[in-house]
Amino acid sequence: MGLPEWDGELTSVRHDPETGAWFVIGVHSTRLGPASGGTRAMVYPGVEDAVADARRLAGAMTLKMAAAGLPMGGGKSVIALPAPRAEIDDATWRQILEIHAANLNLLGGNYTTGPDIGTNSADMDALRTLTPHVFGRTTAAGGPGSSAPMTALGVFAAIEAGVAEAGLDGVEGLRVLVQGLGAVGADVARLAAGAGAKLIVADVDPVRRSVVADAHGAEVIGTGEVLTRECDVLVPCATGGLLTPAAAGTVPCTVIAGAANNLLTDDAAAEVLRRRGIVYAPDFVANAGGAIHLVGREVIGWSAEHVADRTRAVGDTLTEVFADARTHGISTVEAAERVAARTLSGGPLR
């Protein structure tokens, strides 16, 4: 397996012939505390792709934890499934979770995990019976429940900060395009509609599209139109990699702020957005509400009210990021990385 250089601390890769699953854990940094990040379970073209995804996401988690002022490092789990999750029987899934728990135990608390794409709070309940290195359980099992509402709250705070940076007078009346209407995207759409936005939505699932459109009077567009439809605010809440440098050069919007991880394919895309004057809220800041909720409630022991306050402060962090980017003539991604770097180098937690 040929893999590129990586600046993280550890990559663990394990294959289980019986289930056909590959298990990858990327620990990027334990500088601020135990590495933390969700478990993603999905089909990948190959194990190299799963490893690359785990490493990329783990690095983003390091930045997210630092920028949010959380006493945790960055990590990520990826389970490369042999078939889509819906096609895996319960017994096989239980076996996959048991192997994942064993891998977590081998790391001895240096990495803790929660839900992500392909896993949920019920899976974390099951894992917690096998390992203590889990958060994000259901409320019935003593956990804080879904992180989606706080993720959405943080994204909406990012939208408001981006709109202010762009010199626009609030969200009311703006065309807000939400791509991806899962638990987070649907809640962001609700918040935007409640603030008076003219909502435009896109999702591969027709049921989710119709539910949100009916609830908020949203206009529905095809997923292939997301990067070409004129709007004021683009809110990507699906998977990452949406904006290549070429796409960044043509996307017709003023502000971009969403929940998707690794939204930009590279730093060049961020520079293109800067040169075009598009306000971009870096994803690892904008979507930090979920981590604040899960880590804050279940690991640190914060109250729900404190978690909500810390999540709304995502907007304050972005105001600082935008100002730094303006002052130094750099992209907002570079400015946000500077905020995280100051914390990682020994600065105060936010």
Task: Give me a quick take on this structure.
With 350 residues, the protein is an alpha/beta fold. It is built from 13 helices and eleven strands.
Provide a descriptive summary of the structure in words.
The protein is of the alpha/beta class. The protein folds into two domains: 10-139, Leucine Dehydrogenase, chain A, domain 1 (Rossmann fold, 3-Layer(aba) Sandwich); 148-287 and 317-342, Rossmann fold (3-Layer(aba) Sandwich), CATH 3.40.50. 44% of the residues lie in helices and 16% in strands. The strands form two sheets. Strands 8-7-6-9-10-11 form a six-stranded parallel beta sheet, with helices on both faces. Strands 1-2-4-3-5 form a five-stranded mixed beta sheet, with helices on both faces. Strand 3, helix 1 (47-68) and strand 4 (73-80) form a beta-alpha-beta unit. Helix 4 runs parallel beside helix 11 (304-312). The chain starts with 9 loop residues before the first strand and ends in a 6-residue tail after the last helix. One of its GO terms (molecular function) is L-leucine dehydrogenase activity.
